[in-house]
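Feature request, filed as a ticket because there's no other form

It would be nice if the structure record came with a short human-readable summary line next to the tokens. Right now we just get the raw output. Example of a typical job, pasted below so the devs can see what we mean:
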Amino acid sequence: MNIILHQPEIPANTGNIGRTCLAAGCSLHLIEPLGFRLNAKELKRAGMDYWEHLEVFRYINFEEFTDKHPGAKIWMATTKARHIYTDVSYAPEDFIMFGRESAGIPEEILAENEAACIRIPMREQIRSLNLANAVSIVLYEALRQNQFDRMQRQGDLHIFQTDNS
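Raw output as currently delivered:
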């Protein structure tokens, strides 16, 4: 699974999304311009000390991304979509794209890919969800559909050990 952030603006959101990608075994694809710098000081300030373990790719624009990934299945999360994110089938190699915090994915990109647009249902009074939360919601549905492949599915209590013998 792959997450694309199209022109993210807030480093803390990108940091949280990077952490989620690392936990889920996903790659993170960043389409410029970014609203922040990806230098060591900025990453550390945003709490992204795990960034070195994350598979991150950067692209100058969406056209460069599509040139480097011809034929890729890209789901586009937007409040303007007609399809709900749970109503589509995600494959392990799919990409899920999210737009910048202030404006979302540009409408010209959405218009060319309307069948691949998905939305998270919410009440009319709310314009949108926080970007990091939206990524988590959609990504974990995609992972669930793929049986959480290669993920730890069970934990153990450490304080209360039971003897089942």
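Something like this underneath would help us a lot:
The CA atoms of residues 101 and 131 lie 6 Å apart.
Residues 2-145 form a domain with the Alpha/beta knot fold (CATH 3.40.1280.10).
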